[in-house]
């Protein structure tokens, strides 16, 4: 029923960096010109942009948010390891809680 | 609209019939292509991170699992978005080409029409002038011919026209006529060219409109697959969840990790985590945290936080041993109501459970102790009485072919009969009962192995410890008398569970046992069952007419807890199958009681059990399950049977009252 938790904090940080990079740089934007054709064509472009601009933002936010979560995890592991090291020296009082 | 500002009236249009700027559409193509590439890169980056930076060798544990689920969904979502943008690229590229073609046709038509109009005007002017000239020449010719043919003497000072004069006038008239005819042909030709140009412009517009519609339809078809927006607070909460999960001790078991998860997360974070990884709820079922720690955790929360947890994760809390049963009932009812609202989309097995629960839960004394529709088979436990306060609590476990989809109603009815019998036998205490259908029960083939019993025993042991934990957490502790009653293969499973409980139960009663797995239980005295009268409070009964129990035990190579049943026809039959080298075995140390009927001193007649099942039933005609199903009213837990009454006594800790007394088995 047990399992061993493995962590390579440097890999977590490298993963966070790679994710952040994929969401960096300027976001491409469409011109607001009305040269896309008839009202039928222009309305379709408008619907597409309206739908996908939100989808693009969501992906960007998730990528950045995931990178942040990875960094927090790396910080948390390092903090825990530091606390464990303190505990090993005998002044940590042992693990309390669940 | 991107119209070309020209006069389109020559071809019959007030405005540009094929508006648009090809350069603009091409810039749209570039825009969409750039987005598609960016999204594909994000998908590939997420996948790359998963495969390399976050491979199992680099990061494992609950935090890694939850994070990977999200990153995998992100990679898939970005890939899908990239594909939809690429669909847009294809559509816009095609639209650009179609627009250019239509505009070229329209432009040429307009040019031709303008040219035709110029020619038409010139031809019409020429025809008008030639018409006047021709009329004049015709009149002059007519006058000359009249004078030439006259016999009258010409007036003084003039002379009669000569033949040559007439011929010359006729020639001029004929030339003018020819010029006029030519001018009229020029008009016709110009008009035909104009009509043709108008026709081509109209055709260009039709083709343009059709292409525009194709473009619009293609873009509209790409309006799906976007990931739902994630509110900023939720994004922050996810980071917090991962960080908190990362703080869990690396050496913790899954069960302990899940407990730590409960202890560390806020209700909102737990809700977010479950939404992120729906499989997590099943992990709580398969690897339940320690009930003692669950009870301790719950006690540490204030009322507001408890309510928030109930609302955030009813599917987890409802099946969490160690929580008050009233809480579990509320949570499981919420899950039940939600499942009912989407019943038509569930599997047939899940629907059968919900239908059965409609009947069972109509009983006001019933509560939902467990509900897990998404387990390997749907699982349920129905309670009767107040499990949080009752003086006695009995857990009833069924045998083979007793999955919740098939027996929720029947097993709950049997449990209720025992519950009512207990109330009748002892009204000085309050009672509660759980009809537990929390494991995958065997069929006729798998009943011969003990694997499903061992699988189910972990969860059953956890539930039994939960009864102790909920009371222990209460400030003024009153522990109930806890008993286990099991039927058939359920005795195999329950005995395994009683090797795994932390806390001892007060008694264990076996009805028609399908045998004890001596690989797990070497001796009945090893079971975590308290003693009564100096011996373990372990009871067993096997009706003389129950041929299935000893047959199943012998065939499965398990040991029957009542050696007398080895002499039954069922056991002898099994011996025939197994051969002389594998004789059926018994395991001693239980107290056996009769279920074959009796007459009490006051004249009350207790009916015998006449088959294997807990409830008898009337089956018309030949009954292929005759060995399983006793006649109506003659099952182990039917009213008025000796078995039900004696089981009532043993499960209440009143073995001295058992009808016919107890015999120690060998």
Overview of the molecule:
The complex is a heterodimer of chains A (98) and B (666). By secondary structure, chain A is mainly alpha-helical. Chain A is built from 2 helices and no strands. Chain A is rod-shaped and about 70 Å long. The C terminus of chain A is likely disordered. With 666 residues, chain B is α/β, with parallel strands linked by helices. Chain B has 3 domains: 202 residues, Substrate Binding Domain Of Dnak, Chain:A, Domain 2; 83 residues, no CATH class; 314 residues, Rossmann fold (3-Layer(aba) Sandwich). In chain B, 53% of the residues lie in helices and 9% in strands. Chain B has a 9-stranded mixed beta sheet, sandwiched between helices. In chain B, strands 7-8 form a two-stranded antiparallel ribbon. In chain B, strand 10, helix 17 and strand 11 form a beta-alpha-beta unit. The longest helix of chain B has 87 residues. Classes of the chains: A mainly alpha (98), B alpha/beta (666). Chains A and B meet through helix 1 and helix 2 of A and helix 1, helix 2, helix 3, helix 4 and helix 5 of B.
